[in-house]
Automatic annotation (TrEMBL):
It comes from the Bacteria. The keyword Iron applies. This is 2Fe-2S iron-sulfur cluster binding domain-containing protein. Pfam families: Fer2. GO terms for molecular function: 2 iron, 2 sulfur cluster binding; metal ion binding. Signal peptide: none annotated. Keywords: 2Fe-2S, Electron transport, Iron, Iron-sulfur, Metal-binding, Transport. It comes from Thiomicrorhabdus xiamenensis.
Length: 83
């Protein structure tokens, strides 16, 4: 299991959920999102540390060091920061 830490909010475990966003949502985090499909960019966060794998190709283009939580899963412990 990978641990997801959200700076200033806490942490949760990723236990095989569909996406990082789903894991955070199920754990009670108030994460921004709209489409859950990589189209809008509402779930964009800064990846501070760790590695993720893209599970769907988003249409929305992120900046360097940014990820869409709806489109990735963690490969190890990750730290993210809300933008």
């Amino acid at each position: 299991m990978s641990k997801i830490t959200v700076i200033g909010q806490g942490e949760c475990e990723f236990d095989g959920q569909f996406s990082m966003l789903e894991a955070l949502d199920e754990s009670g985090f108030d994460m921004p999102y709209s489409c859950r499909g990589g189209n809008c960019g509402a779930c964009r966060v800064k990846l501070v540390s760790g590695e993720v794998e893209e599970i769907q190709t988003p249409i929305y283009e992120t900046g360097e060091g940014e990820i869409l939580t709806c489109s990735v899963i963690p490969l190890n412990d990750v730290v993210i920061e809300l933008l």
